[in-house]
Structures are given as structure tokens and as C-alpha cells.
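Section 5: illustrative case.
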């Protein structure tokens, strides 16, 4: 089978809800990343054969085919096609899988996988809320599903509490993990670790004045265990709080994936090789611990052991998710989310997959390491795993 290579991986710095990126239309935000991928790689934009875009809330400004709208808002020629996909939080990670599969199959040679989510302009849950407010339908889950699983709704907040209980994590453990995420992210930002992956764009300050946006707004360098401990839990007797969960975030990201033939034809230098693509699904009620099983399957299929993996990115949707993953697969905490995670950096839903990949690719190369693994819990009890080899 042919190989698939990553030749560029970029993201915007995250914007807090109502923050620096509040004035960006999501199509323009995504277009900024598409433009940067082309400019940085030096590839002829007309050579791009498809753009696959992950986005979760495809309504309002993210409706009517956000992927195609990103292309039209960019400097790419209008001969470049696009498609918009939704695999919940793993949407752009799945976009990367589709792009790599297209290249590995020989169907295409140059594909962009990207993601975008403006959680300021299209708030989380909008696709469900709007029809319900209009009195249309009963929501995404018919009675047949509710009866099958014995629930009235599928909530990631409930799933996070279930994961914490299942794997035995108390509130202090979760808050300590959250604090670590902020500290690692602050150190990474201050040390220039994100410089290679961040597309610098124009944002606005609180007063609406234009300013350079090149740092993730969610990082709290002054975070403390005391402050985190003072936050109220989301449920009365729960352990999940706004402090040990991922932050609402605006952002876009993208990865340029090519074949070996394209490397030669366009004079491109690969950053990494795609080593394994895995997706699994399990219990849709607890839903958030599926990365554990997905990781085991990915390692089995690739013939690698976890010790072979130098760095791992496990999305910090909620603190119990990466903690459970570490506990169950026997991971080394020193290799996990080395530059912080979504608790500090934000989780722009559909953009998080290729966002994490951008961070992983550059973190591995900066350390002179070889293998990296990325995984993410997704709504409905699904999980993607991507293993890469740095070059």
C-alpha cells in the first residue's frame, strides 16, 4: 500500500468565547489556515484535489457546506472541491483519516484535512436547540434509541462523571491534572513551543481594538489548586467543573497530506508519515472511555507497543478521560500532552482533531523523537486513533 505523508500542520491560537476571534466568520477563520498551509508548503494551490473539513455545529454561519465556503473564502482556486463531515469532537481527526486513506489508496495525491469551529458565533448545541425552539421534531434521539439504552439523552457531562467513578478519580486528582495542563501550556507558549504551528492572524481586544492573535487565550498562567477547588461542580454531587473540563473555544486547524509521488513532483519535504489509522465504537452512554479500546486496537494492528510511542496527545475533553487512558493502557505521564491540552488551550470541537495533530507533529520533531499517537473521545462512544512517524 502507498504511504501518506504530512507536509504541513497548522492551527490558529485558540480564542475564548466572546474573545479575540469573536469577529471572525468561521469560513474566513478556516480559510486563513488553508492559505497558510499552501503558503508555507509552497505547493501550487491548483494541485490540491480535495479539502475535507470537520465541523460539529453545521448550522447558522457554519451551515450550507462550511468546507466549500472555506475554499471560496480562501486563495484556493474554485476548482478545488471540498466536503464537510461530522464525527463530533473527532471530526477533523476523521478528516485526516479520510485524506490519508485517499492518498494511500492511490485515489488522490494532495488532500487537505482541516477543521473549524466558532463556538462564539455558533454556540454548542445550536443544531439541536433551534429546531426544538421552533417546535419541530423531538430531537436527535428517537424513542427507539432511548428505550434501547434506557436514557432520555446522551450527555458527555454525564459520561465524564461516569468515567471518573468507573476509574476511581476524585475531585482533587482531576483538579491537579487541570492545573498541570495550564502549567505545561504556559511553559510551552512562553518557550516558543507553539511558534511553528500557530498561524498568526488579527484578533481584537476587549474594547474591539485590532491586535495580533498568536497566543491561546485560555491559558491561565496564574492557575492554582485553590482556585480550581473553589469552582462549583456541574452536578450537585459530581466532580466535573468548568476548571477540569475543556474550554469553549474558537479556532481552525489543518494538515496537508500527500503521496510519495506528490513529494517528488512538487519538491515537498515531509514532516511525518502516517503509520496507523484506527476508529472504534463502544458504549454510547459512558461514551468517553472508548479511546482506551481504540488505542489497544491501534497498537495491535500496527505491531507496536506503547513503549514505542514517544509522545501521546489524548484530548482533554474532561480530566478523567486522559487520566483513565493513562491508567488503563499503562502510559507514561511524562509523554502525555507535553504542551498542555484542551483544559488550558481550548477545545474548538470540529477543529480539535487536526489541531492536536499540528501540536503532536511539531512537538515530536522539536524533541527529535520518532512515534506519536493521537486519540480523542467522541460523541456516541466513538474514538479515533492516529499514529505517526516523524521524519
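Designed sequence:
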Amino acid at each position: 500500500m502507498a504511504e501518506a505523508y504530512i507536509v504541513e500542520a497548522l492551527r490558529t491560537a485558540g480564542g475564548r468565547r466572546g474573545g479575540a476571534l469573536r469577529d471572525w466568520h468561521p469560513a474566513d477563520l478556516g480559510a486563513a489556515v488553508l492559505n497558510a498551509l499552501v503558503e508555507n508548503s509552497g505547493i501550487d494551490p491548483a494541485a490540491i484535489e480535495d479539502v475535507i473539513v470537520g465541523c460539529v455545529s453545521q448550522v447558522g454561519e457554519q451551515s450550507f457546506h462550511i468546507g466549500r465556503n472555506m475554499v471560496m473564502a480562501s486563495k484556493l482556486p474554485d476548482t478545488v472541491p471540498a466536503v464537510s463531515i461530522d464525527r463530533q469532537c473527532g471530526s477533523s481527526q476523521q478528516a485526516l483519516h479520510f485524506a490519508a486513506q485517499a492518498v494511500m489508496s492511490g485515489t488522490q495525491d494532495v488532500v487537505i484535512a482541516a477543521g473549524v469551529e466558532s463556538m462564539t458565533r455558533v454556540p454548542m448545541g445550536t443544531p439541536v436547540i433551534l429546531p426544538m425552539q421552533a417546535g419541530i421534531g423531538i430531537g436527535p434521539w428517537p424513542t427507539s434509541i432511548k428505550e434501547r439504552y434506557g436514557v432520555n439523552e446522551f450527555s458527555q457531562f454525564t459520561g465524564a462523571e461516569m468515567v471518573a467513578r468507573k476509574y476511581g478519580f476524585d475531585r482533587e486528582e482531576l483538579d491537579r491534572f487541570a492545573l498541570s495542563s495550564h502549567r505545561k501550556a504556559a511553559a510551552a507558549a512562553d518557550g516558543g513551543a507553539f511558534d511553528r504551528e500557530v498561524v498568526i492572524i488579527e484578533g481584537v481586544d476587549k474594547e474591539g481594538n485590532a491586535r495580533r492573535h498568536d497566543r491561546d487565550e485560555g491559558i491561565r498562567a496564574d492557575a492554582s489548586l485553590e482556585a480550581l477547588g473553589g469552582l462549583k461542580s456541574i452536578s450537585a454531587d459530581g466532580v466535573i467543573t468548568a476548571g477540569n473540563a475543556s474550554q469553549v473555544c474558537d479556532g481552525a486547524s489543518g494538515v496537508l497530506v500527500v503521496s510519495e509521488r506528490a513529494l517528488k513532483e512538487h519538491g515537498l519535504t515531509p514532516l511525518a508519515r502516517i503509520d496507523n489509522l484506527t476508529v472504534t465504537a463502544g458504549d454510547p452512554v459512558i461514551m468517553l472511555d472508548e479511546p482506551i479500546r481504540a488505542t489497544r486496537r491501534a497498537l495491535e494492528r500496527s505491531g507496536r507497543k506503547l513503549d514505542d510511542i514517544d509522545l501521546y496527545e489524548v484530548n482533554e475533553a474532561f480530566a478523567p478521560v486522559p487520566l483513565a487512558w493513562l491508567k488503563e493502557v499503562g502510559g507514561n505521564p511524562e509523554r502525555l500532552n507535553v504542551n498542555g491540552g484542551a483544559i488550558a488551550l481550548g477545545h474548538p470541537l470540529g477543529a480539535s482533531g487536526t489541531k492536536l495533530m499540528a501540536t503532536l507533529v511539531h512537538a515530536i520533531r522539536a524533541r527529535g523523537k520518532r512515534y506519536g499517537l493521537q486519540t480523542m473521545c467522541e460523541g456516541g462512544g466513538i474514538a479515533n486513533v492516529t499514529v505517526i512517524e516523524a521524519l
